[in-house]
Amino acid sequence: MKIYDAAIIGGGVTGGAIARELSHYKLDIALFEKEEELAFGVSKSNSGIIHPGTQNPPDSLKGRLSVLGNALTRKISRELGVDFKEVGALIVAFKDEDLPVLSRLKSEAEILGVPRLKIVKRGWLRKNEPNLNREAIAALYAPSAGIISPYRLVYDLCENAKRNGVEFYTCAKVRNVTRLDFSGIPGKSTLEIGTAKGIFKARYVINAAGLFADEVSAMVGVSDFKIQPRKGDEFLLDKKKEHLANHVLFPLPSGESKGVLVIKTSDGNPMIGPTAHETDDKDDLSTSDEGLREVFSSAKKLVPTLSENDIIAYFAGLRPASGHDFIIRHEEAAPGFVNVAGIQSPGLTAAPAIALMAARLLKRNGLRLRRKFIFHRHRRKEVHLFEMPMSKTAKLIEKDPGYGDIVCRCEMVSAKEIEDAIARGATTLDGIKFRTRAQAGRCHGGFCTTRIMRILAQKKKLQLTGITKRGRGSEIVKSQRKGD
Amino acid sequence: MIKKSLICIECPVGCHITVCMEKNRAVKITGNKCPKGEKYALSEIQNPVRVLTTSVLAEGMPFKLVPVKTDSPIPKARLIEAMREVKKIKLDRPMHVGDVVVPNFLGTNANLVVTREFFQRGTHTK
Amino acid sequence: MIERDLVIVGGGPAGMTAAVAARENGVGDILILERDQYLGGILNQCIHTGFGLKYFKEILTGPEYAARFIEKVENIPEVEVSLRSFVVDLKSDKTLTFLRPGVLKKVKAKALIMATGCRERTREMVHISGTRPAGVFPAGLAQKLINIEGLIPGREVVIVGSGDIGLIMARRFTLEGAKVKGIVEIEASSRGLVRNIVQCVEDFDIPLYFRHKIAKIYGKNRVEGLEVVKVDEKFNEIEGLKFRITCDTVLISVGLIPENELIEMAGLEMDKKTNTPVSKELNKTSIPGIFVCGNALKVYDIVDSVSHDSLIAGRMAAEYLKGLK
To answer: End-to-end alpha-carbon separation of chain A, Å?
Structure first.
């Protein structure tokens, strides 16, 4: 049986970034994801903010890695063809006594190396953020904040990693990790990973299992941390309200969370949220009426013109919180096992830097990192009709008629784009939605679902009754009229 | 005397009709705004009937299903039985609106007829 | 750029009727742009009866009603029908761009009729708490799955909203062998036609819960059930009157929204509440020569009213064109 140099457990943004980083080197890497598709865990509920690095203690991993991650994400997004928009962030103050808080946040952030920070006053706010509550007196302006599509980033990282040799296994929940021999020297013994897709062997294992990182870590006997899920409800607003906010708007921080934000997402829809409520159920992604009330009452303090009538979608995510900082360490008690756990906010931002740190940890613990001669750095960006100027669309359709065959009318997604998404790894309706935005528009799949099901069934040679929303157990329909 | 009330379904108005019954026979019908209502009320008391609309499987055609209906109402009590029979039908050639799929469906004197036209011209550019 | 006398966006009953009326009033060049693979619009999936009583004095099914107009349209040589054609851009000067497999075309219309119909209000717009499993469908999508694709969405269904689409689907599911466990309506009475209450709900003994709403959907990957709660006149939940219904399918039938995003794109004056163009006279809009008809103008209860309305739009477009000469 093949022995991988490293096995990554978890196919979210952390696992994906590590996979791509390690694929620079002459290594055999495998990534195991328990869901039907990548990014179906914590990453899909991410708000997509690339944080500037503010609001982190100066000596924290969160602080250092998010500042570095912010810079690295720009480079990576260019290489991978995923849109990154630098929109800037504002932490808004309403009272005079809050001004020292802004100054403190600014100086702490500057120690970390966050660039171009500025305290801005009413005049600037009125001009640059016209819908912001007029009672705001000042804000800390962090121009380096940006927005990105979190799941598209995961898919693009993983696709590139795959191109560079990483093997991906989905529906491959890890059940146990056992050491096969006991040299005690990291990299010298073999770890056996039992998954739903079979048994695999690796010299090193990187645990990037999000909500389940504590359970995976316990498999090798390291149980000194616990993942305490913290739920956040988020609400998406109609794209018509695109210009509600020009920057990512933060209230002053309070307690554990950054507060309820008004976010301009990468796709154009404003998003407000999240709440922050601890829960014990790692599977509980339900939203609640209280969540809606909480989000809107907080967000309206920032943008009074927000209206519940503009909601077009909502969802909840669970933060894999553990203590105050990231847990990124090689486990002495389990040589060869690296924990990358507790990756809550600013995990998305920090991901490329986390990946570098993980690679360094592996190197320090005996994994030879020899650069490949050929590394395919770039990835050709997918076609999205809705992002193109009309002149380009015409040429595209001439080349391939399938681009003129519109399936999703709310987001203008063609049949060919859907086929492309399937070729790139989508096997479910949600996977197609995350990659193309089909079904994510105003009618939420009311018009396009049947056609997308047919395309998926045809391309993947499935029965229509086998098409799922997000994997086994979520089949769309129960039965089909057939002839005998 | 027993009074039964029902709502006429012959048209979107939905008149509230009262039927006075004596010895299990209807003796007076009131509330209907047109003669169809009286006819409906009598029928509904004695032997409720409904038009069945459903679809049948089609093979070798651009559409998987062909919508059909009974061209006159059939006993309400036989609707489920009718659905079972319909499931056994499979059309193998395109048909016109009004074509009979099954004459005298279930022996009810109603015919099962096609309700969708399959001979459309498609994109016809000038 | 090609110029056409009259362009009609939408080949459902509204667009087809408008085309027929425009021709009857003298328009000699008509282009219908329909995004689906066939004419007929939503009528193609409305296989139940109840259409045509006013217009044809007959009781027809949706497809039969559509067939009458499809035949008329196909027999008018002055009407060009472009299927699978999707309008992506509309400008206030009546220039539009549309896509069709293999084709991107720009057209300047002398007169324009928007007959773009409605979309359904979805679960997301009415914020129903709980999880987001598979098995929650807008009622029209369920109708399309059953009647066009032959796919049965589920076996135990609860329908949210007692509008006509929900009622019709209660019957459809029952006939297809599923169990409809209830219809939940927040108001004190049904919004649908009374005849549908009789032949879709009472006929099959389906429980109808007035003044109730869905408190929560639960189920991880597929719907497992609903929490239903009684509400007062202000739609507030009444403590202690919550109960659960197990089911694997939830249909959402809580209203229709006119589809006027293209008109909005072109900058016409819009009524924000109804999502329809502001109109001072019948089917006219704030831009002379651009007309709206059918469900895009107003959500009608029966298609006969749509046809009546679209006749006027077609005639108005013809008058407008005559006036240009």
So the answer is: 46
C151 and chain B in contact, CB less than 8 A: no
For C197, the enclosing helix (H) or strand (E) is none
Q: Is A173 in the same domain as A299?
A: no
| Token output for C106 | 């720009």
**Which residues does chain A have within 8 Å of residue B57's beta carbon, measured at their own beta carbons?**
481-483
Can you give the pTM of this predicted structure? 0.94
- Concatenated DSSP letters for A196-249? TTEEEEEEEEEE--GGGHHHHHHTTT--S---EEEEEEEEEE-GGGGGG-SSEE
- Nearest alpha carbon to residue A251 among A203, A201, A303: A303
Q: Decide if B50 and C83 are in contact by the 8 Å CB cutoff.
A: no
| Residue in A closest to C42 by C-alpha | A447
Question: What is the per-residue pLDDT across C117-164, written as a single tens digit (0 to 9) for each?
Answer: 999 999 988 889 999 999 999 999 999 999 999 999 999 999 999 999
**Chains contacting B (3+ CB pairs below 8 angstroms):** A, C
The last residue of one of the domains, among C215, C237, C252, is C252
Contacts of C84 in chain A (CB under 8 A): 405
Is B65 in contact with A483 (Cβ distance < 8 A)? Answer: no
Question: How many other C-beta atoms can be found within 10 angstroms of the C-beta atom of residue A134?
Answer: 11
Handedness of CA C138, C140, C144, C150 (dihedral sign): positive
Query: pLDDT averaged over consecutive 10-residue blocks of chain A (484 residues)?
Result: 96 98 98 98 95 91 96 96 95 95 95 95 96 96 96 96 97 96 82 97 97 97 96 91 93 83 90 93 91 93 91 92 95 95 97 98 96 92 82 88 91 94 96 94 91 97 97 96 67
Residues C247 and C135 in one domain: yes
Q: How far is CA A383 from CA A196, A417, A439, A482, C202, in A?
A: 34, 7, 17, 37, 51
Domain-ending residue, one of C202, C233, C252:
C252
Q: Is B69's CB within 8 Å of C61's CB?
A: yes
Domain at C147, CATH number: 3.50.50.60
Give the separation between CA C100 and CA B123, rounded to whole angstroms. 10
A174 in Cβ contact with A195 (< 8 Å): yes
**Domain range holding C242?**
122-252
Nearest CA in chain C to B55: C147
Cα separation, C23 vs A229, in Å, equals 65
Q: Name the helix (H) or strand (E) containing C215.
A: strand C212-218
Long-range contacts of A71-76 (CB under 8 A, 24+ apart): A72/A352, A72/A353, A72/A356, A73/A146, A73/A148, A73/A349, A73/A351, A73/A352, A74/A146, A76/A20, A76/A157, A76/A352
Parent domain of A410: 385-466
> Do the chains contact at C89 and A390, CB–CB below 8 Å?
yes
Helices vs strands, H then E, count in chain C: 7, 22
Is A444 among the catalytic positions?
Answer: no
In the three-class reduction of DSSP (H, G, I as helix; E, B as strand; rest coil), residue C106 is classed as: strand
Separation of alpha carbons A229 and A246, rounded Å: 31
Query: The tokens of A159 are what?
Result: 């696709």
Residue A349 lies in a domain: yes
> Cis (ω within 30 of 0) for the bond into A346?
yes
Q: Which residues of A touch C222 (CB under 8 A)?
A: 473-475
Q: Which chain B residues are Cβ-neighbours of A482 within 8 angstroms?
A: 57
Q: Which residues of B touch C (CB under 8 A)?
A: 6-12, 14, 50-55, 57, 63-65, 67, 69, 76, 79-80, 83, 97, 115-117, 120-126
